Every structure is written in structure tokens, then in C-alpha cells.
Amino acid sequence: MINDKTIAVVVPAFNEASQIGMVIETMPDFVDRIIIVNDCSSDATEDAVKKYFKETGIRVLPEIIKLFERDNMFDKAELLIEEKNREEILLFPEANVIQPNKEQRLVLINLKQNHGKGAATAIGYKWAKDNNIDCTAVMDGDGQMDPRELESICNPIIFENVDYVKGNRLRHKSAKILIPKTRFIGNSILSILTKIASGYWRVSDPQTGYTAISKDALNSINIYDIYKRYGIPNDILVKINIAFCTLKEVNIKPVYNIGEKSKMRPVKVILPISWLLLKSFFKRLWIKYLFRDFHPLFIFYHLSFFLFTASIPYGIKILRFVLTGQSANPTTVLALIFLLISGFQFLLFAMWMDMQDNDRLYK
Questions:
Q1: Which of 19, 33, 133, 186 could crosslink 266 through cysteines, CB 3.0-4.6 Å?
Q2: 318 assigned to some structural domain
């Protein structure tokens, strides 16, 4: 615990038999629950975790207090949420939980099929949510995250009422040296796309998995709907922005070459995540700025898209004239210029409003 607040760490693991022991052994003492989610590993990850059941000791969690009587007609809304929380387990991948007793600090969740890092993290979140954990962090099972930095990741949630905290490796002065060049470039590209899609315009290094989320934020999003694979950090940023959650970034060091074997291929990851971010951008606009809380930026964004789309036929027509050596009609040229300039103006207004509106969420 920190300041009487319970802390859990979700550790998604796939074929991490050689590294998972180091992660468990170096976990800080203030962590109340270590939730290892074995994503149907084909190696001895499960056996490697089970060795630590006796060694990790026991921690008693505060009992969940039910504030609402079931026969009170005014508490139907709260009871409905409780019922939904119980039923949503059916929306998660099939898994079995191994915990010798409820006070056991180490919890092992075995997925029966491989579903990806996002799915493994989501089922860990579900356990933390059901057990009323105040702050739930995520650390990878390959040991690439310094456990000494975990307290700085959790503190903003415990002491500053921040909803979501993420590490940022790109700000560290060793980033350009330690982070492989292809990953650094790919991460930089996804940083730009994630700023636009999520609404957190000052965020960077979106691909880091070293994060922490508050109990309230965890209950404000549909965790069963989290992107199943490596796009999970990007997807969560969009989801918590729609829920008006506050965010803070904490500088962390990049850690590489400590025995881990990366399973991520940047070239194969960038395109799927870019597509996810494109869909998420429009989802954020429609849900947050039309249905939940209308804002003029919704109109400005869509006007810019309409004008850019309307300019395409004129652009093709002028290009055809240029390729055939003909003179373009002045009216066509003026129409293209008008549409492009107007589109850029509406786009810039929309982005400026977007930045101003979301600046309050960035701590």
C-alpha cells in the first residue's frame, strides 16, 4: 500500500519463463497484488510463476463494502452497474485464476488460448476492478521496466488524483542511443498519430506499457473492449479521453538488452495501429463531441474533411490537364484553391479548439 491505497501490478506474459522470475523478485514491497497473466505460453512460464507462491507471502486487502441495500428502490442504477460488472466476465477470453488463498500476494491467471498483450492486460484489469484495487499498474513480463520507477508511476494517482499515468522514455537523454533506431522512428510516428486520435496533444511515447490507472478510470471504460494486441496503450488513451480522464506522464529510462527477446516487429505493428488510431479518432469525435458534450470542433473537423474530399475531383482534373499539356480552366483552379484553403482553415480551427479543450486533462 501507499498512503492506505491498495496497489496491484498486472504483468502480461507470453513465453517469459526466463524473465518472469526477475520481475516477481524485484517487485517493490508496497505492491499488494502481483497479477501475472499467462497468455497461453508454450514454454514453462506457468511453472516458473508457481514456484513463487509460497515466497511472495500474504497481503490482506480491505473488504469491499456494499453501500447500497438491495431492497432500496433508489439504488437500482448502482445495482445495475454491479450486475453488469458480474456479467461482463463473459466478454473476456476464457481463463482460470490460480490463487492458493485470497490473501496470497501472487495471482496467476492462465488464458486458455493466446489472445495478445491487450487481452492479457484487460483480464488483469478485470481482476483488479473486481477486487476494488485503488491503483493498478502494468509492467511487462520481460523485465524491461525498472521496478524502482514504479512508485513514481503510482504516486500521481495516489496523491494527486490523476486518473492515468504513463511512462515516457523519449524524454530521457539516452533514448536516441538505447532505443533501436527502427523503434525510435516508429514510436515517433505513432506519437504524432496518437496525439491527434486521443486528444492528448502533449503526449509522447504512446507505446510504452509502463502505466498506472485509477479505480475510477478503470470503471469508466469498457475494459473488455480494449484492443487485443500491441495497440492497447493507444486504444486506452482514446478511451480514457472520451471518459474525460486526466493524464500525467512520468519520465522513465529506456531498458534494453537484459535478456529479453522482443516479440514485436515495428514494421508489422505500425500499419494496424495507424488504422486503429484513424477509427479511434472519429469514434472520439462522435462520442465525446456530439453525443456526450457537443462542441463546435465536431462541425469544423467534418467541414474540413468535406472540403478536402470535394477538392479531389478538381485536383484530378487539373492534373489531367497538366499531363496532356492543356491549359487548365481558371475557374477550376480557383475552385481547387478555395476548397483547399477553406479546408485547411477549418482543420486548423478544429485542431486548435481540440488542443484547448483537452489541455485541462493533461497534468
A1: 186
A2: yes
